[in-house]
Amino acid sequence: MSDYKELKVKPIKNGTVIDHINSNRGLNVLNILSLPDDNTSVTLALNVESQHIGLKDIVKVESRELSEEEVEKIILIAPNATLNIIRDYKIIKKSKLNLMNEVSGVVKCQNPNCITRTNEPITSKFSVIHKKPTLLRCHYCEQTMNIDDIESQLKKSN
């Protein structure tokens, strides 16, 4: 008898697979996507062994491709993630998510006195101080936001 165990997850016919999500962040990815819902089949694997990052989460979303806005939010909490578009059981597009050096309009500054929190028509803008773990600094007031702050805000916005 072998001690080797293999994780078997049913492949999806069409949809999106988000792989290499940092461990214990998969539920937050589902929250960003407003899932689960009554119409979408979702597979979630938590704390799966990965040769590259130790432990990872995986999210499979059947019959749905993500919007650019959803991807921008996911990048903030899962900067190591890989996005796979599946059609007819085949990966037709595979892309590594990449957190840029600047983030605009995705999250809001937490500082209640920041100009972006007033009635002025100003889009929030952050410099990325650290990518792993994510740490942002507001362009206008220099308030910082860590991964927990970002996840908390993204949960509230959905």
Structural class call reads: alpha+beta
Low-confidence spans = none
Number of helices: 3
- What's the Cα radius of gyration? 17 Å
Q: Approximately how much helix is present in the residues?
A: 10-25%
Distance between the termini: 48 Å
Order of secondary-structure elements: EHEEHEEEEEEH
Strand order of the largest sheet: 2-3-1-4-5
Largest sheet: 5 strands, antiparallel
Chain-averaged pLDDT? 91
Overview of the structural elements:
- There is one protein chain.
- This protein is α+β, with helices and mostly antiparallel strands and 158 residues long.
- 18% of the residues lie in helices and 36% in strands.
- The strands form 2 sheets. It has a 5-stranded antiparallel β-sheet with strand order 2-3-1-4-5, with helices on one face.
- The chain is elongated, with a radius of gyration of 17 Å.
- The chain starts with 14 loop residues before the first strand and ends with a helix.
- The mean pLDDT is 91.
Summarize the structure.
The chain has 158 residues and is of the alpha+beta class. Helix content is 18%, strand content 36%. A hairpin with a 2-residue loop joins strand 4 and strand 5.
